[in-house]
Amino acid sequence: MASIVQQTFTDWELLLMDDGSDDGALDSVENLADPRIRILRDGKKRGIAVRLNQALDLACGQYFARMDADDVSFPDRFAKQVEVLQADGALDLVATRAIVIDEEHRITGTCQSAISHEAICARPWLGFPLPHPTWMGRTAWFRAHRYATPAPYLCEDQELLLRTHAHSKFGTVDELLFAYRIQTTKDRRILPKIRRATAQYQLRYFLGREQWYCAALALLAWPANNANDWRKTMSRRSPFVNTYDVAPRVRQQWADILDAVTGSAPPRSVSDG
User: Structure pTM?
Assistant: First the structure.
């Protein structure tokens, strides 16, 4: 939350969607005097897709952005995304490039990304390289294309992109403006389930439109992705990381942002020198 409060773009509201948490993480937020921050809780676990749709119903702004509680937005994230959306009236959804961080705030690499709509949508059977926590789009677009419920297992974002890519326009701000936290052990364990769910909704989509070629490629991509995930795991690399080389300038920028948000710098790793 601190990284949102420190955005250079200040005309925002923050909806904290509590999906039945029992750790008291949001208790301290209730005492904040910032009228831009609201907590929504009903004590139930209903899943991210339901909560995002609820947030859409409550949102007052022209644009709708999201992120997970343990991720960090760089200070210029909102400003840069709003600028891009205002400059191109045909653009529906814009992401940013993102670094990947571990549980101890260390950079492990960067997320896969593509910049133009054509590049993002070039191979839909392999998914769309738009990291979900970095999204900002037009609220009207989100309301016209709500998250599917029940959602496919932890891939509600990719299902939405597949469903809308043929009649929407996506883009990415070509700057690292986000830190995406991957919980290494937990996220590796659930990845095969995500791959399975992805293949299932892709096949339904392509077969339902008689796109046989794309359906065949999606079916082939499923075991290929599982094999690639296994190879990365065996070599002690994260399946969620696209590139591992991160410029010293970016590492220093991240250290400065983390210090501003939490009051501490990330621990050094072997790759830091």
Answer: 0.92
